[in-house]
Design brief:
The chain contains 3 helices and 7 strands. It has 165 residues and is an alpha+beta fold.
Length: 165
């Protein structure tokens, strides 16, 4: 398949909600494979359509020790009251990470590449990744889950990396 160009922070597309997928065909499966190839090349463990300029609600995840998984039109149905902290970053802002606080567990509804509906209850890294990527599909870039001070520090660090690179 193809490695797509990544949308880099602060591109305004990273703050726009993605459109629901309504057609489940070979073209969607090809786009999903393109996203997976792009994520692996970045490298990363999760990517959404908007990260690659595709403004559709499509997520590819490949966590350590697991097979690749695709989530079409995912949405959080339930989030636990218990919270957890985990380092996060983005293929659209490489080289910087910061701890983000999120619910420790979630239940997510989504469709497969064939349009079939599914639900998954997740904790640990899968929970973090699903919430992170669903936020991105909703136009919430991960740094907007940080305090203003931490967000400004992350942006300055990223700008410094760009100038050095």
């Amino acid at each position: 398949m193809a490695v797509l160009d990544l949308v880099r922070f602060p591109d305004p597309r990273l703050r726009q909600p993605a459109e629901p997928v309504t057609v489940f065909d070979g073209a969607l499966a090809d786009r999903a494979q393109d996203l997976l190839d792009t994520m692996r090349a970045a490298p990363g463990i999760g990517i959404t359509g908007p990260h690659a300029g595709l403004m559709i609600r499509l997520v590819a995840l490949e966590l350590p020790e697991t097979a690749p998984a695709f989530y079409v039109n995912p949405r959080v149905l339930w989030a636990s009251p218990e919270m957890g902290r985990h380092p996060e970053g983005s293929v659209s802002m490489p080289g910087v990470v910061e701890e983000v606080e999120r619910p420790a567990r979630v239940r997510v509804a989504f469709q497969g590449l064939d349009g079939t509906g599914h639900e998954v209850e997740a904790d640990g890294l899968l929970s973090v990744c699903l919430q992170h990527e669903i936020d991105q599909l909703d136009g919430i870039f991960w740094i907007h889950r940080l305090s203003r001070l931490k967000r400004e520090r992350v942006v300055k660090k990223y700008e410094k990396l760009l100038k050095a690179g």
